[in-house]
């Protein structure tokens, strides 16, 4: 996993787009164990920007709760864009494209079996297409990043679940589905 430290250092020193002018600090990925699953969000929020760690705010607490309930002990948490956009706006397509090299490097380094796209921006950044999230949610796609093939499960971003609590059950089911796909030979529940 020495390759991960190189990626983290490249992220910390990146100033390839204007986000480096407004961020507090870039947010490199967080890895626990030898993960087979990546959880990929949109971009850091305020708390993540301040702490330099992904998914540490309220949305992160919800994600980690769902991961724990599902049984995840090893995981990789990252974002398609590594710096906080001003006012938490949605990242621009150019920012996603500039940052995509880091996600590709992360995939090449760890070779995950599954990426969980948390929300529409992550889905677009990983899969390259833009469909309504409610059509893609819960479905599994195939992606090739940096020559590495992986499955991609699309679900809601945990921040959306905090705004619409009615999505919580489906979100937790999707995270459990991700666990079962990898650790329970594809059984859904």
TrEMBL record:
CDD domains in alphabetical order: UDG-F4_TTUDGA_SPO1dp_like (cd10030)
Species for this entry: Ignicoccus pacificus DSM 13166
Alphabetical list of SUPFAM superfamilies matching this protein: Uracil-DNA glycosylase-like (SSF52141)
Matching InterPro entries: UDG_Type-4/5, Ura-DNA_glyco_family4, Uracil-DNA_glycosylase-like, Uracil-DNA_glycosylase-like_sf
Name of protein: Type-4 uracil-DNA glycosylase
Catalytic activity: Hydrolyzes single-stranded DNA or mismatched double-stranded DNA and polynucleotides, releasing free uracil
Similarity comment: Belongs to the uracil-DNA glycosylase (UDG) superfamily. Type 4 (UDGa) family.
Domain of life of the native organism: Archaea
Enzyme class: hydrolase
E.C. number: 3.2.2.27
A GO biological process held by the record: DNA repair
Keywords attached to this entry: 4Fe-4S, DNA damage, DNA repair, Hydrolase, Iron, Iron-sulfur, Metal-binding
NCBIfam families in alphabetical order: UDG_fam4
Pfam families: UDG
Residue stretches making up the Uracil-DNA glycosylase-like domain: 28-176
GO MF entry, a single one: 4 iron, 4 sulfur cluster binding
């Amino acid at each position: 996993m020495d390759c991960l430290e190189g990626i983290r250092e490249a992220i910390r020193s990146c100033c390839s787009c204007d986000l480096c002018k407004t961020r507090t600090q870039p947010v490199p990925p967080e890895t626990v164990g030898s993960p087979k699953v990546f959880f990929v969000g949109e971009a850091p929020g305020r708390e993540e920007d301040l702490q330099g760690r992904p998914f540490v705010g309220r949305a992160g607490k919800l994600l980690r709760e769902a991961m724990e309930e599902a049984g995840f002990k090893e995981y990789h948490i990252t974002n398609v864009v590594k710096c906080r956009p001003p006012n938490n706006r949605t990242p621009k397509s150019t920012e996603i494209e500039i940052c995509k090299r880091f996600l590709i490097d992360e995939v090449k380094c760890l070779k995950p079996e599954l990426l969980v796209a948390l929300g529409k921006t992550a889905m677009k950044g990983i899969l390259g297409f833009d469909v309504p999230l409610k059509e893609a949610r819960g479905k599994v796609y195939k992606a090739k990043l940096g020559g590495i093939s992986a499955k991609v499960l699309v679900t809601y971003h945990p921040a959306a679940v905090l705004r619409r609590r009615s999505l919580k059950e489906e979100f937790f089911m999707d995270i459990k589905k991700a666990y079962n796909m990898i650790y329970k030979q594809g059984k859904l529940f």
